Structure to design on (834 residues):
């Protein structure tokens, strides 16, 4: 053994797989992320990602906030900080959650590296290997990925035009107890502008969920990244309004400010917050101090609300454009959801078309991308003729062109059968 | 069940412990973090934390970088980005690692939310419940905390004046195989200016470690947060120079730029990098885009190197001040390490004094804080008469006053026996 000055030497490749933990084999790359790599070709019109439109990032506001907090509080904004998060930001969030119908005080709030970290922390403190999670089919891909790393199993409930069907929960609960010996770790819901389904749970279903969860002593994870991006209709009270004692609510700045800040938050009962904080300490000590100061400055200046209004206006137009284009260019046999907000809609094509195959063999050749529906089914037992379409990222004229290209390809496919 | 408009109502408190995963009971709050809360009293002189001095934060440089990247690349800097990290920053780090003696290319580099996330990712992909980690006694507290969450066991090797004693590794390896049925997940070393011991591994011991690790097919985690903070002597080649094929190297901007950015990096063999990226995707999708752009701008401008020189000058003075004050004010029976760099030294008092008890009953009354040594022993089997003293945070005059107060209290304690 010697100090090797030749740093460009050939280095042996070891077989690492034999060194790894059992859980590591459950980890998979996100299909979306792998797909996004395929679609980096700038000629491709991508409805695949979940990216906000960069045109509506508050760039000037972030620049001003950076300047203000670094000049005025640079020593604090660049130092280590509390695991729980920056106190003024926690206060702002508790207050704004309160206005939204959630009985939160600052002690119920934990800042996270985006909502994805919140999903990870939930997996970490709740999921034993082999334990079930109840969720919809389809459901959010990032949640599946986060919880697979903890060796979760998934039991899914149907999602119809109004979101998750609640009638199945009690049966599902007993089935998972029977199968695993344990009650499910929690039930996961996306009540507003569901990713990927685009559906919104009506109040009656939320009340039904709250009653069943209480009866079964079930924890509820309420993921609400798009709640403030409503383009029509009235806000519906969150599940955390109905049963705050058993709801873990997730919010994020990614869609209303900017995802590159990596800032989300958890609202949870105080008794549980201690566990979240311990888990987060081990994960990364705390969320970035500077970005929390910057977000707080933007919040305190009162510019977030008008900014969200501006975003809603832009996205509403893109949603309407996509809906109109679908009606105009797609075959009659196709169906799609009509989301009241958010970033996505869910389209179904005739059963004869497999959307994974169609993406690879047809859509990408026409330079259009989407995410095939099966990726949102944790047990891969559906969605083969569905796809998720994002309408927030591409400008309206590009949306029309992309939907048109897909429509032409779909019609051709159906005709050739 | 009804929508409850009274958000200040009494909310039932559930018993969450019965809902949690088995691993959650292994999570504990960091003793340091709990202690720091006690020491938020501004009158207390704290040698407890591991905080860099805010006087040497590159505040103006960060402000300028924010302005530059937000104005010039705001749409990218605020958007989602790749899990692996920002390509130009990966290139800069690969290049600077190369100069440091590590044969890295950008594909070997992953950006993390500080080094703590790197420790967590390592636990996640390597540690099965009940699997052993080999480490020194004492060792870094944050690593213990990160890996306890994965239900690791720890087998420890003695740390003497030159760092970890390598003669014990082979025996330890076989002992852990015997005890758990599996080889240890990896060996964890802090070769430069050890936290908490302040020791530096000489080249012979690094070579010895590399030979043993190769013989036993053992992965090495080389944690090097302070490597660039050397106040005297010559750089010693990192272990990753000797056995890059089996070393996972951890670096961080926390001590050389600012911890509030939450930016660290992993250098690992490419075959393993795929697993780290999958694990990180599930954890938080990616590290903050904005802070990576900011750090990259500072790196590209070439101002990091002179800035590190400035930090070293300030910390060297503080270290010397602490060493002089210890010699002047502490009882003869005490000993301490003489670190060539970093942020900490390790002091031993006579065995009759329990440093945890002494902290609570004496030191805090004299308004001085440190971290009791036992916290750095994963199996709590030593360090009862030791303490970790940080010399980077308090200015020189405060260091003198704090060491003097501790010295007087220690002398009093020894006299009273």
């Amino acid at each position: 053994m010697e100090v090797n000055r030749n740093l460009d030497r050939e280095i042996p490749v070891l077989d690492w797989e034999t060194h790894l933990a059992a859980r590591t084999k459950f980890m998979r790359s996100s299909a979306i992320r792998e797909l996004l790599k395929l679609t980096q070709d700038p000629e491709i019109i991508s409805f695949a990602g979940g990216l906000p439109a960069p045109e509506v990032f508050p760039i000037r506001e972030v620049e001003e906030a950076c300047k203000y907090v670094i000049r005025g509080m640079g020593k604090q904004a660049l130092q280590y900080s509390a695991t729980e998060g920056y106190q003024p930001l926690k206060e702002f969030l508790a207050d704004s959650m309160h206005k939204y119908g959630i009985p939160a005080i600052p002690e119920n709030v934990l800042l996270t590296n985006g909502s994805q970290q919140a999903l990870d922390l939930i997996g970490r403190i709740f999921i034993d290997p082999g334990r079930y999670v109840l969720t919809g089919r389809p459901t959010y891909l990032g949640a599946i990925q986060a919880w697979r790393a903890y060796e979760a199993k998934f039991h899914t409930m149907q999602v119809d035009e109004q979101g998750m069907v609640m009638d199945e929960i009690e049966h599902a609960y007993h089935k998972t107890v029977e199968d695993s010996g344990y009650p499910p770790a929690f039930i996961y819901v996306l009540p507003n502008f569901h990713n990927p389904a685009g559906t919104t749970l009506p109040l009656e279903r939320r009340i039904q969920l709250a009653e069943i969860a209480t009866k079964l002593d079930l924890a509820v994870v309420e993921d609400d990244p798009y709640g403030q991006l409503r383009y029509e209709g009235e806000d519906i009270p969150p599940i955390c309004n109905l049963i705050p004692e058993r709801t873990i609510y997730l919010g994020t700045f990614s869609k209303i400010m900017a995802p590159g800040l990596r800032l989300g938050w958890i609202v949870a009962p105080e008794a549980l917050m201690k566990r979240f904080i311990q888990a987060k300490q081990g994960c990364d000590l705390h969320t970035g101090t500077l970005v929390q100061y910057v977000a707080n400055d933007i919040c305190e200046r009162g510019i977030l609300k008008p900014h969200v209004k501006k975003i809603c206006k832009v996205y509403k137009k893109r949603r309407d454009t996509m809906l109109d284009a679908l009606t105009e260019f797609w075959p009659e046999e196709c169906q799609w959801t009509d989301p009241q907000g958010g970033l996505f809609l869910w389209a179904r094509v005739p059963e004869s078309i497999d959307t994974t195959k169609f993406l690879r063999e047809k859509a990408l050749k026409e330079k259009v991308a989407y995410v095939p529906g099966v990726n949102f089914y944790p047990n891969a037992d559906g969605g083969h003729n569905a796809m998720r379409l994002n309408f927030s990222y591409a400008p309206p004229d590009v949306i029309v062109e992309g939907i048109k290209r897909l429509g032409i390809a779909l019609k051709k496919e159906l005709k050739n059968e």
